[in-house]
Amino acid sequence: ILSARLAKACPINPRQRGFIRAAGCSENLKLLQLLIQKAKREHREMGVVFVDIAKAFDTMSHQHILMGLKQKGVDPH
Predict the structure, then answer these.
(1) Structure pTM?
(2) pLDDT more than 90, % of the chain
(3) Domain that residue 55 falls in
(4) CA-based end-to-end distance of the chain
(5) Element counts in the chain: helices (H) and strands (E)
(6) Residue 76 falls within a domain, yes or no?
């Protein structure tokens, strides 16, 4: 129920990979592998950065999150 309400109010970017139902890690690894192969074929440099923000929602004010959801029209009940 919550997921459906959020999807209507806050559409997810198709490039989003975290916290969604998808192939997940295997899909991301295959994409990375293809990008590396392409860069090698084209003799181009490529940088890769992995970012994992630990406890991202734990460090954000819950009041701020609720306010943002209200602004997007998400039913608080």
Answers:
(1) 0.52
(2) 23
(3) 2-71
(4) 11
(5) 3, 0
(6) no
What is the length of the chain?
77
* pLDDT of 4 strictly over 90: no
Buried-exposed string 24-60: b where 16+ CB fall within 10 A, e elsewhere:
eeeeeeeeeeeeeeeeeeeeeeeeeeeeeeeeeeeee
35 φ, ψ (degrees, to nearest 5): -65, -40
Name the domain count of the chain: 1
8 part of a folded domain: yes
Closest Cα to residue 2, out of 62, 10, 57? 10
Per the structure block, which two tokens stand in for 60? 């954000």
Are 46 and 33 in contact by the 8 Å Cβ rule? The answer is no
